[in-house]
Amino acid sequence: MKFSSILRYSFLAIFNAGSIYLIPLIVTFESWFLLTVLVFVTFLINFTYLTDKFAALKWITPGIIFMFSFVVFPAAYNTYVSFTNWSTGHILTKSQAIDLLEARTYTPDDQKGVEFDIYIFENNTDEYYFAADLAQDQLLFGKAVTQDEIDKASYATHEPSLKSESGEIVTPDGLKLLAGKDQINKANKLQELSLVIDSSTRAQLYKISVFGSSTGRLLSTSQRYTYESEYDSLIDNSTSEVCSSDGDNFVCNTESVDPGWRIFVGSENYKKLFSNQRIRGPLELVTKWTFQFATLTVLLAFTVGLLLSITLNKEKLKFKRIYRALYILPYAIPAFVSVLVWKGLLNPDYGVINNWLDPLYTFFDIEPIKWLKTKESARAAVLLVNTWLGFPYMFLITTGALQSIPKELTEAAKVDGASGVQSFWRITFPLLMVSISPLLIGSFAFNFNNFTLIFLLSGGGPPVIGSEVAVGWTDILISFSYRLAISGGRGNLFGLASSVTIIIFGIVLLISAISFRYTKRLERIYGNI
Amino acid sequence: MGTFNLVKWFKEYGWRHLVGIVFVLFAIYPILFVITNSFADFANLANSKLIPDNFTLKHYKKLSGDSLVPYFRWLYNTYKVAIVASIFNVLLGTLAAYAFSRLQFKGRRASLLTLVIVQMFPAFLAFVAIYLLFFQISDILPFMGLGTHLGLILVYLGGSIGFNSWLIKGFMDTISPSLDEAAKVDGASDFQIFTKVIAPLARPILVVIFVITFIGIYSDYILAAIFLKDKNLWTVAVGINTVFVDDFNADWGVIAASSVLAAAPIATLFIFFQKQITGGLTAGSVKG
Predict the structure, then answer these.
(1) Which of residues 107-166 of B touch A (CB under 8 A)?
(2) Where are the domains of chain B?
(3) Chain B residues with CB inside 8 Å of A338's CB?
(4) Residues A99-108 pLDDT 10s
(5) CATH topology of domain A280-528
(6) For the segment A301-357, what is each residue's pLDDT rounded down to a tens digit?
(7) Most CB contacts within 10 A, which of A232, A267, A272, A397?
(8) CATH code of the region B69-243
């Protein structure tokens, strides 16, 4: 066998072993989508590299795996999520939620109130040990742990050696018995600790006594909820209530038990988006602004870029190269930096822009503009900054396009008696649009989802007062969706957020389709000239 | 005579310089402002001005010594993620491009078309799904789950065979097939033709694709913001836009210094490769 084959088969063996190892793990976590991805990837890799039949696939498969795993599958998963109630309180699968609920405990009334003497020891690393004198043959001793450590703590053991024959408590080596006074000083900390006796019982410090020994109390806990699969309901053992499921939550006495679980809800999210007035309002507002923003921003940047390329499109103009080099600079800087800097310039209280405008404010006796704090100023600021970011690109592409238009055409027009303006609008501009318009559509599509600019400059704000979901006057669809899912301050509404991104998918698809047709049409026109 | 010439000069050239200079000021003012301010010896935004009276390096020094703002850690993270992701991006893209350019197979046109269609939808549109998917991966394979650089790099590799492959394929098509036929006659395998003939000849485009990808990943905000929750793992885009949000006035000097350090290498790279990058951009992919 050749070395390369050995390498290939060992790789396949290791890879498949890994997959087989992962499958049961994924099944336990019920991540069915992940399972699909893994099975697909495993299948594709074996299909490609096990035989020599598909030579081309060998080259393409590595890229395809990543494209499918992290672009195509997420897109499909996104669609699925948009049909679920996936959100804060409905993150888990049903069985995960039941497991979590069944692990909850409570202290039954008859278990409260058993009291006993408790002794507290400290070692020199700030750890504490309790000795609970429960009965003659039950002097329980062990390390006291905090709430978080209870699951991992070992149970207390009976230590008769801690008591001398005369009934005095004996301090073990390396420990120090805490007197009542010391206990009071550390009361806050000590009250957090408990001695674990068995899986459901703990001993805690209850009352500190300065003279004599302090009092401890037993805390016995029982399982709070039991799930009855036969009736698909939860029994609340503390009240003996039966809590039936309402689909995605158990309901005890009209109150939902948190957490619920995620389920398929059909078109619920879309219905919410389109018919719930308090969500539909914000969505309409955001959609409208997204189109306005993308259109205006392309228009403004294009106008400035074209103006500059026409201005500089003159033979023998001095410093042309210097101008060009400087115009490109805003484009060379990462947007996340530019936006941060502009935020400083636009700062209403200390920024340079209000400094400049100050004479105007004084002259016209008007309030200084609260940049980014009001609807109009925020929208204007977003457009201003995006024009700054975008005009260099427009300048570059229009310059290129202008230079590629044959001079004979404009010269011929001049001979026929056309003025400069006429020949520009009748000849240069239409020809320019042929080569530029696909790029303008591309720029529109890019700005339609220009999350970085909006989110970092205005955060989508200022907020629209009185809407049910977090939304601001400069939010575009993608930032709106981001706030629903990640940072809206009202929980993670994954289901609703992904239905908004599905709307974006739809619009992007439409734009692309138009762009394809439009480009073809323009090519025909161009071909006829 | 002189006046006449001036009017004529203005009509021909003068106004062009006027418009030109106005927009030069518009274009470079914010840049100059942030550069001078990063060296300026004043405390805050309120008393900042374009040309400071005294220059100092104190803002840069502050950046390196503040444990609450592990700025150089962020820079390191950004370079690490962007370089690793770009290398693999180019590698995967080149492999696919070779097949599309040199091998005849069924479904070649269809796959190329699929790539274009898939590429029209930016990967971050499915950010909810990416977040939830990696949230689940965290349970099973914590080293590549949410909050890890590896996970983020994997997501960035999702776009490796889109437009990149197109551009590389386009370049490979211009390499004369007689070269690989000659190699084939000499008994070279596909793999040898790729490593010995095509890939070395395609090096100019590979460098450009690497630079475009690197700048794109360096500048990404949304995916990095979703992925990275630990301050010490943030990229610089996430870091400076998370830490400096509350008190612009007091932080201005440090904001300026961190902006300059984050932008300068990228701007240099961009200007150096400007022609090729804008060529690539007009052919399809977009810079953020």
Answers:
(1) 108, 111, 115, 117-118, 120-133, 136-137, 139-141, 154-155, 157-162, 165
(2) 2-60, 69-243
(3) 30, 263
(4) 888 888 887 7
(5) MetI-like fold (1.10.3720)
(6) 999 999 999 999 888 888 888 999 999 999 999 999 999 999 989 988 888 888 888
(7) A397
(8) 1.10.3720.10
